Amino acid sequence: MAMMPHIAPIGTEGYLVRFADRLDDVANKALVGFAAALEAEAVVGIAEISTALASVFVRFDVGQIARADLVARLEALLASRDWLVAAESGAARLWRVPTLYGGAAGPQLGEVANLVGVSEEAAVRELSAARVRVLAIGFAPGQPYLGMLPERWDVPRQTELSPRVPQGALVLAVRQFNLFANETPTGWRHIATTHMKLFRPDVAQPFTLRPGDELIFPAVSEHDWAALETDPLGGARLEERGDA
């Protein structure tokens, strides 16, 4: 097995910088930091930098940078610091996202609570206090995979798809939340709904979230949640440093 981090070619115009062979919390933090540092270097010829759960994809323009030169830049950046140590030292942006749990806004909350062995009230208390991180963005523009929840929330995906969950749906499976950017079918269980806007094509940075951001989904009343529908970010508020 290759030592991590490991650089491997992907097709004719890409490289994958793999930090782990499976989802690992520290490795995920490390790759987010590495990707940010690589982007800051603004290397001529790099066309795309995309993070996933355990790796960073780098696409390059073969007419602007030689393959060997790109690999040398990636190797130099990897060697410049201990990314696993650096990952634990940074303070993330923290979002607080008002969330309505259960009922029509989270019709499968009771099912999830039963699978875990707690009451719905206990599930809401724990989940609304959980602090999760954007592990990756994908599936739809701006849509985050969020984790990791405590081990007892390792709830399997459904064997059948739910035909529809709304935009803003907070769903749960495999110790992760997913917050949907669009109405969609899903195999994850729908436990709550937010009004958070994840993709805003009319602003300079259309993706609201970025890898490494942290989120808390505090429970609010139906009255307070409904009042946030017209808020530009659905009531979500950002703290530039997530120390609290």
Chart the SSEs and their pairings.
Elements: E1 6-10, E2 14-18, H1 25-41, E3 46-51, E4 55-60, H2 67-79, H3 83-87, E5 94-96, E6 99-101, H4 109-116, H5 120-129, E7 131-137, E8 144-147, E9 162-165, E10 169-173, E11 176-179, E12 184-186, E13 189-194, E14 214-216, H6 222-226, E15 237-239
Parallel strand pairs: 5-14
Antiparallel strand pairs: 1-2, 2-4, 3-4, 5-15, 6-13, 7-8, 7-14, 8-11, 9-12, 10-11, 10-13
Helix pairs in contact: 4-5
Which descriptors would you attach to this protein?
244 residues; alpha+beta; Gyrase A, domain 2; Cyclophilin; nine-stranded mixed beta sheet; four-stranded antiparallel beta sheet; elongated
What would you note in describing this structure?
Helix 4 (109-116) crosses helix 5 (120-129). The chain folds into two domains: 6-87, Gyrase A, domain 2, CATH 3.30.1360.40; 94-239, Cyclophilin-like (Cyclophilin, Beta Barrel). Helix content is 24%, strand content 27%. It is α+β, with helices and mostly antiparallel strands and 244 residues long. The model has no long low-confidence stretch (mean pLDDT 92). It has helices spanning 25-41, 67-79, 83-87, 109-116, 120-129, 222-226; strands at residues 6-10, 14-18, 46-51, 55-60, 94-96, 99-101, 131-137, 144-147, 162-165, 169-173, 176-179, 184-186, 189-194, 214-216, 237-239. The chain contains six helices and 15 strands.
